[in-house]
Design goal:
The chain has 78 residues and is mostly helical. Helices cover 81% and strands 0% of the residues. The radius of gyration is 34 Å and the shape is rod-shaped. This is Lipoprotein.
C-alpha cells in the first residue's frame, strides 16, 4: 500500500512540476501562424493585382480586335 501511495505522490508532483513550466512552443506556433497569414495576404494582393492587369490587357485586345475585324460577317470570296 505504501508503494501505491508513493507512486501516486510521484505522479502528482511530476505533473505539477511539468505544468508550471514556460510555454515557449505555443508562442512559436502563434508567431509562425501570424507570419504565414501575412505571407498569404501578401500573395493574395499580388494575385489580385495581376488579375487587374490581365483584365486590362484583355480589354485592350478586345478593342483592337473590334477595330481590325471587318464590319460584315460574310466569308471571303474564293
Amino acid at each position: 500500500m505504501k508503494k501505491f501511495f508513493a507512486v501516486v505522490a510521484v505522479a502528482a508532483l511530476s505533473l505539477g512540476a511539468v505544468s508550471c513550466g514556460e510555454k515557449k512552443a505555443e508562442e512559436a506556433v502563434e508567431n509562425a501562424t501570424d507570419s504565414a497569414t501575412a505571407q498569404i495576404d501578401s500573395a493574395a494582393a499580388l494575385v489580385d493585382s495581376a488579375a487587374v492587369k490581365v483584365d486590362s490587357a484583355a480589354a485592350k485586345v478586345d478593342s483592337a480586335a473590334a477595330t481590325v475585324a471587318p464590319a460584315t460577317t460574310e466569308a471571303p470570296a474564293k
